[in-house]
Amino acid sequence: MVKQAIVNSSPIIFLSKAGLMNLLKLAGDEVFVPDAVVQEINQRGANDVSVRAIAAAEWLQVVDVPTPDPLIQAWDLGKGETAVLTHALHYAGMFAVIDDGLGRKCAETFEIPLYGTLGLVLKAKRLGMIAEARPVLHQLRKYGMYLKDATLEQALALIGE
Q1: Host domain of residue 29
Q2: Most CB contacts within 10 A, which of 47, 54, 71, 142?
Q3: Which Pfam families match (predicted)?
């Protein structure tokens, strides 16, 4: 069975800034991004690294999510999160790749399988794709990824760092 994932803007932005867009492939054999997320990222301008990373990632498939699910819409999330979770809700087993706290709670409520940028970095370390997770996570924090010190240390302990 093909594992599928759909990704929100923040993982794309953080990972592209770190030169690690390929880590999104760890979320699924097929990785999708809603058109709403692409539009959001494109507002950053043509020279933005995230805009260029989406264009260069031939494996990243853009999908249109025309109608937000009313159950998801009731959570009052951003357009990107709403599109990601609506799509994942309607395709059983699809993973949502999302960092936003409220978006993650919404996914958990609807039992949508979930990854975050942190989880992808930990998985990359376990698979030997990166030598150490700590410097990668510190770099991602510099690029704006919010991660409490306690959460960072707990996560690193899980992989023996």
Answers
A1: 4-117
A2: 54
A3: DUF3368
Count: domains in the chain: 1
Task: Tell whether 103 is covered by a domain.
Answer: yes
pLDDT tens per residue, range 51-86: 999 999 999 999 999 899 999 999 999 999 999 999
CATH number at residue 110: 3.40.50.1010
Tell whether 133 is covered by a domain: no
* Under 8 Å between Cβ of 29 and 125: no
Give the per-residue pLDDT at 116. 96
Q: Which residues contact 81 (CB under 8 A, 6 or more apart)?
A: 8, 98, 100, 102, 103, 106
Structure tokens at 93: 């087993």
* pTM > 0.90: yes or no: yes
Within a domain: 26: yes
Task: For 83-120, write each residue's pLDDT tens digit.
Answer: 999 999 999 899 999 999 999 999 999 999 999 999 99
Q: How far is CA 68 from CA 19, 76, 140, in A?
A: 31, 11, 30
